[in-house]
Structures are given as structure tokens and as C-alpha cells.
Here is the input.
Amino acid sequence: MRKFLFLIFFGALFFIVSCGKNDDVEPESKSSLIPSNDFDFETFDCSQCTYIVTDYKTDGAELNFKPGDVICLDSEIAYDRLLFSNINGTAEKPIIIRNCGGQAIIQATKPGGISFEYSSHFKLLGDGGGSNYGIKVTTNTGFYVLMRTFTNQFEIAHLEIAGNSDGFAGIGLKTSPYEDCQLFEDPSRPWTMTDITIRNNYVHDVNGEGLYIGHGFHAGWTGNACPNIVYPHVIKRLKVYSNIIENTGYDGMQIKNGDEDIEIYDNYIFNYGTRGENGQNEGVLLGGPITGLFYNNVIIKGTGNGLRMLNIGGNNDVYNNIIMESGKSGIRIDGGNEFDLIFNNPYLNFFNNHIVNSGEYGFVIFDKRAADRRFKNNLVINASDQLLAIGSQIDAIDTSHNITTQDLDFVKFKSINSYEFELLPESPAIDAGTDLSNFGVDIDIMRRPRPSGSGFDVGAFEQQ
Here is the structure.
């Protein structure tokens, strides 16, 4: 697995990487902080496939698929929407679904691009050559890619979700309660989504969310076509990394009900919430509740909050992120008095983040629960309202070693206008932070070790 790298091209504002067989353009970034998803994939020969998909529905039970089989999407076939059912490998031998012969293109004329049901232990991979994203999906309506109906233990990588302003969310992961009302009426949550990896995908120009993962309403709710109160499934052991998400109508990324080991890192989100619908226009929305790590992400330009955490209920470490040009607050934390907690005494840590040019607050918290809250080594620069705000009835938050200023020139970045956030040698942020190694923060956004000098630098970058 190749690591997601951030490449800084000084003075460059635009980045264009070439696409596979039709010389299409992949993706044009409006930032000089550029994630690299370049891979030199060899073209996978279709003769090596166990089975080549030709029809709308591929049923692994009917076709007697075995663990370790390789199911292929042929670049020579013009695919409409596809449904995969009963694709069940094992943890040791997952079933692989990949493109062969070059980039495979799915252009759905009916709801949904690619959907999976009743499937587990498989990988959907666009690593068969022809492009960095060997499977390209577009649709006129519905989800572009949807993992539904008790689909579990899977990986999605190297897909291009190519929006056309008609389809809804890019990649959706959820089993809805209406798919089995009686099962989801059980508050013990007898079914859990586990062991999911979403990595190295390019999602752009979708009408809804870029990534739509999980349900809200952790404490249960009525409706959704079920006669009684239902409790949505939770998610455990989820990794979301190295994804490029651009130009989303709603949230760039939404993740809810992640009760255990949620890790979100090295993602790049640009121009989110283009429809401007309040409550649906966050760069990243985490909630309902969630617990885990959120680090080394870049969130630039949108109509809502850069990062919103809503009724999160668990332990969360948020560090080394860059959040810039949010239409509302850079980071907003919300939570009422009554909601489920994963832990009795959860904590919230915000360390070494850049929060720049926020349309409302820089950082604001309205979460009223009892929790340990720490806000350290952060750069909060130029907000239309307060740089650091704590709502009424909020217990104390431990703040220290932050730099908060309305002066864009104070910190002395290499070039804030072209998103070059490396610190100049004379920056007051160098060595001005507190040591956070006991909290697990030992790298910067470039994965360079902290500290480099006599102390931690403030912000996402550690000057070398």
C-alpha cells in the first residue's frame, strides 16, 4: 500500500494529472497542497480473470464464486448500472473485483452506479491499469457507489466518481433500517458494519455528499418506513484515507455512528457545500456518535463549517489538519445535554491544526457534556467573528500554546495566498508549542518527526 504524500510546489496554484485512455483531465486542484495519487499500474489482462461481468446483476451464489476469485470489469464493455449480490470471500482470501484491459467505465442511466448487497470480504479495486482510477462511475440519479443490505468487511480503492450534477452521493456505506425493520428494532444492535477501508479514490462534482458513511440517530428514531423505533447499525474499524474530494453539493464527507477505531487521515477536500444548504454543507461532518483519529487532512473552501462534530460521544484526537476558507466556522463542536456516550468520561483533543480565514468563528464549541477538552498548539488566523469561542454553560477547556491573530502576516508562512503553509525561519510559531508526544502526536502533516528543534512548532507543519 503506497502512502499518501503531500507535494508542495512553491508558487504553483494548479495541478493537473493526466488520466488514462481518453486523455481526460484528473483532478484540477485549486491549492498548492496537493495529494499525490499517482500509481504505475500494469494493465491487468482479462485472461487472468475468474469471471468477466457482462450483465446488470452478478450473483456470487448462483455463479459459485470462491474465496480468492478475481471478478473483472472489462474496459471493452460499455456498462450501465451494476448490482453485485452474495460476493463473499474470507478474511484470508477476499474476492477481488477489478478492471481489466484498461479503465472500465460505468455510465448508469437508472438509479445507482455500482451497488453491493449481502456481500462480505471483498475488494473493489480500480488497479487494473489505464488510469490511476481504473474504474470510473457516473450516474444520473442515486448513489454512484453504494454498499447496502448487510454488506460488510470490504475495501474500495482507486475509483473515480465522476459527477454530472445529477447523481446524489459519491460513495455510500449503510444498511438502512427499512431493509429489515424487525432486526433494527433491537437496541442491542445485532448487526454491525466492521473492517472497512476507503482509500485513494477521486470523488468530484457530485450533487450530494462525497462520502456518505453510516446513519445518524444513534439513540433511535421513528420513521424510515418502519412502524416502530429503530436503532441504526454502528461501524467499527473504519479507515478513510488518501481520498481526493472536490466540488460536492452537500458535505465533503459525512461519517456517523462510528463506535470503535475510526481513523480518517490524509484526505483532501476542496469546494464543499456548493448548493449552500445549511446543515448539509460541511467540509467534514462527524457525529452521532463517533470515536477515533482525524489527522493530516486538508479542507479548503466551502459554504459551511470546515469540520463539524455533532453529538460525537467518544474519545477524539484531531491534529495536523489544515482548514481554510470555510464559509462558516473552521471547527464547530455541537452537542446537547442528552445523547448517547460511548465512554463515561470522553475527551476531545485538538492539537497542531491550521484554521485560517473562517467565515464565522475560528474554533467554537457548544457541546455541554462533561468531557476533557484540550486545545493546544493550534494556529487560528483571521476569522470574521471570534477566533476562539466557548459557548455558554460549557465547562473549562484546556487551552495553551496557541497562536490566535487576525493578522495574516503575523505567523510568516511561505505564501498564504498560494496555500504554502511552511513556516519561514523567523516565524514566531517555531518551537513555540508544548510537547504533545504523550498524546501520540509525533509527526507533522508531512509525516516528518516532531519536534525538530528545541520544541514543538505551533500548527500543522514542523519546520526542519
In short: Helices lie at 181-184. The longest helix spans residues 181-184. The chain has one helix and 42 strands.
